[in-house]
Amino acid sequence: MKALQYPSIGAAPAVVTVPDPEPGPGQVLLKVTAAGACHSDIAVMGFSADQIAFPLPLTLGHEGAGTVAALGPGATGVEVGEAVVVYGPWGCGVCRMCARGEENYCLRAQQEGIFPPGLGEPGAMAEYLLVDDPRHLVPIGDLDPVRTVPLTDAGLTPYHAIKLSLPKLVAGSTAVVIGTGGLGHVAIQLLRAMTATRVVALDINDDKLALARSVGAHEVLLSDERAAGRIRELTGGEGATVVLDFVGAPSTLALAGGSVGVEGDVTIVGIGGGTLPVGFGVLPYEVTVRSPYWGSRSELIEVLDLARQGALDVHVETFSLDEAPHAYRLLHDGKVNGRAVVVP
Ligand code: NAD
Ligand code: ZN
Ligand code: ZN
C-alpha cells in the first residue's frame, strides 16, 4: 500500500510503498478515509536524533478516520464496514490513569514503549491503518470523516484544555485564544458552544484572523508587542480570565503572562519551545499555569456529540496522499487555513 513517511532525520516526508498490514490478535485493520496533518508533525520532523524516542521511517498521521476492513483473532466490539475515528493517545489500558480513560497520561506508556499511531507507531497517512485495540476506536455513524477527523486532536486537545477552565468561563469573562490555526479555530467554536465567555482571538496572519472571526471570535487582534495592552484595554484593565496559547513560543507566552488577570488561567498547548516564569509577584495573584496533552477517550466522545449537534464547523483543506508532502510544506509555511486533511 501507499504511505506517507518521514524517512530519516532532516529528510522531507515522501510517499512510499510499504507492505499491506494484517491485523494480529486483538487488532483492527482500518481502510483509511481521512487523516489530519498537525503542526506537531512539523515539530517531530524538526527533532534531533536524541529527541526522537522511536525508530524511523515513521508513517505520519495521528488524526485518523476509517472504515473497519478486518478484525484480528479475538478482536470484538466493532463491525466490518463500520465508520470510526481513532483515539490517538494510546496507553497500557490498565494503569491508574488509563483506568480513568486518561490514556493520554498513561503512567506506563514510556517504559512499555507504547506510542500513538503517527507519533511512533505507523500512522493514518496510508491506505490502511492498524489499530492495536478496539477500545481505541469511536464510531462516528453518519458524520463526514473528512470534517470529523480533525476532532480527534484539533478538537479533543482544546476541548480538554477548555474543560479545565470551565468554572471560570462565566458571563462577563474573557478567553484569549493565541494562534487560530487547526486547533485554535476549533477552540473558538468550542468556547462559544460550551460557555458564555467573550472570545478574543490572536494570530499573526490576516486570513487566520478572518477565519477566527467567521467561526465566532468576538474580537480579533494581531499578535504583536501591543497585543497584551489591547487585551487589558478590552477587559477594563482586569486582564483575561483564561489564555489558551496554541503557539507556545517565547513571544506568545510573554503575551499570555502579560494579558492574564488575577485568578486567571494560562494554558500552554503549543509546543513552540517557550517558557513562562512563575514566582511570587511575577504573574498576577493566583494564576494557574497548565500544559495539557491531548484528552481522554470519553472527552473525544463528548466532542463528537457536539459535532452531531451541529455546534462545530471544522474548516478543512483536502489533499490526496500523493499531495501530502505539499500539505506539510503549506502547514510549515503557515499557509493552511483550518486543518489540512489527507484523503487517501
Ligand atoms: P497550525 O499551524 O494549524 O496553527 C498555528 C497558528 O498559530 C497559525 O495560524 C499561525 O499563524 C499562528 N501563529 C504562529 N505564530 C504566532 C504568534 N507569534 N502569535 C499568534 N499566532 C501565531 O498548528 P496546530 O496544528 O493548530 O498546532 C498548534 C500547536 O499546538 C502546535 O505547537 C502543535 O504542536 C501543538 N499541539 C499540542 C497538542 C497538545 O496535546 N499539547 C496537541 C496538538 C497540537
Ligand atoms: Zn497533533
Ligand atoms: Zn496506562
Automatic annotation (TrEMBL):
* Pfam short name (any one): ADH_N
Its cofactor is: Zn(2+)
The alphabetized UniProt keywords are: Metal-binding, Oxidoreductase, Zinc
| Enzyme Commission designation | 1.1.1.1
Q: Which residues form a coiled coil?
A: none
Q: Where does the Enoyl reductase (ER) domain start and stop, copy by copy? A: 10-342
Q: Out of the domains of life, which is the source?
A: Bacteria
Q: Does the keyword Cell membrane apply?
A: no
Which SUPFAM superfamilies does this chain map to?
GroES-like (SSF50129), NAD(P)-binding Rossmann-fold domains (SSF51735)
Kindly state which reaction or reactions the protein catalyses: a secondary alcohol + NAD(+) = a ketone + NADH + H(+); a primary alcohol + NAD(+) = an aldehyde + NADH + H(+)
InterPro entries attached to this UniProt entry: ADH-like_C, ADH-like_N, ADH_Zn_CS, ER, GroES-like_sf, NAD(P)-bd_dom_sf
Name the Gene Ontology molecular function terms of this record: alcohol dehydrogenase (NAD+) activity; zinc ion binding
So what family is this one in? Belongs to the zinc-containing alcohol dehydrogenase family.
Protein name (record): alcohol dehydrogenase
Which source organism? Streptomyces daliensis
For this protein's source organism, the top of the classification is: Bacteria, Bacillati, Actinomycetota, Actinomycetes, Kitasatosporales
